[in-house]
Each structure stands twice: as C-alpha cells, then as structure tokens.
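Hi P.,

Sorry for the delay on this. The queue was packed all week, but I finally got your sequence through. Input first:
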Amino acid sequence: MGIFARKSNGTTTTIAPVDPALAALTGTYTIDPAHSSIGFTVRHAMVTNVRGSFAEHEGTLTLDGTDPAASAAVIDVKIASVDTGIADRDNHLRGGDFFDAEQFPLMTFRSTEAQQLGGDKYRIVGDLTIKDVTKPLAIDLEFNGSATDPYGNQRVGFEGSADILRSDWGLTWNAALETGGVVVSDKVKLTFDISAIKSA
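Then the structure:
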C-alpha cells in the first residue's frame, strides 16, 4: 500500500487512483515513544561499531491518503537522553566536544518532500538540525502497515535509516590512533523504528 505519491524524473507527479484503504489512513498521528526508537551506529577505533539511541523524542506524522505528496513528518529529539550503555561516554556525547546538550537541547527534523521508491519503500527529505546547523537529510523508509491495537488505537509503522557525516553538522571531535586512523568515524548511520497513533 502506498503512502506517498511517486515522483517522475521530471517535474510532474503521477497520481494513481485513490486506494480506499489508503484514504482511510488520512490524519495526524502522534509518535508513540514507548514503541519507537531513534538510534545511531558509529565506527569506533576502526574495528567495531558502537550503537546508541535517544530515549526521549516526540513528533507527528501527517498522512494524506488522497494527496500523498502532502504528507509530512516532524520529529524532536532530546539530546540529553542519549544512551550508549556507558555513562562516561554518554556524558562525553552530551558535552561540548559533541552535542553540547545544555546549549542545544534538541535535534529536530522537519520534512519538506515525500517520494515513493516502489512498493512500500519511500524517501522522506527534510531539514535536520543539530546544534546550530541545519542541512538537508534524506531518510529511506519502509511502511510496515497499519493496525488497530487492543486498546482501540489506530497505528501506523515505519522503519528506515540514513547515513550522514557528523562533521557536516559541526561534530568534529576526534583523536588519532597510534596505528593510524581515528577513534570515531565521521560516518554515522541513523536508524528509525516508528510506531504512531492516530490522534485526529
């Protein structure tokens, strides 16, 4: 089932007949943080991966089943909630070498465009702000479907990822290794596993 309109290579948009099941999903959805995760993976010391997540986040998805290209996403992430499982490392990430969470408490994403890549795969393009830097970000997503949970909530689910260079957002701290290379890679993989509840 498609959520977003398929973009052609030109400037026009191909509009398929409206699927009644798709139209029924039209509405505003609130991200359920208890059943969602926003995380990251980064290479450490050139030999292994460190994974972390942000425990506190909120946002909304606006889905338009009759005009899917009008769908949008807004996400706010509380930087101080970063969790890699190691307290000292988390405190370093919150500090001035990295996120400076006291001065810049939120990481935000505001979508500007939605594209269908085929089947249930999509790309959401928008503005990612970390600290005082805003740059475009494209997130590849898969629509996992919709369901009514045991409490009567209508839910939709998406999962996806995006690769970024942290230096593009001013996160440049590093240390050299004696054997060559650096402690923290510039490339970071962001991951999203979102469950959202229809609120309007």
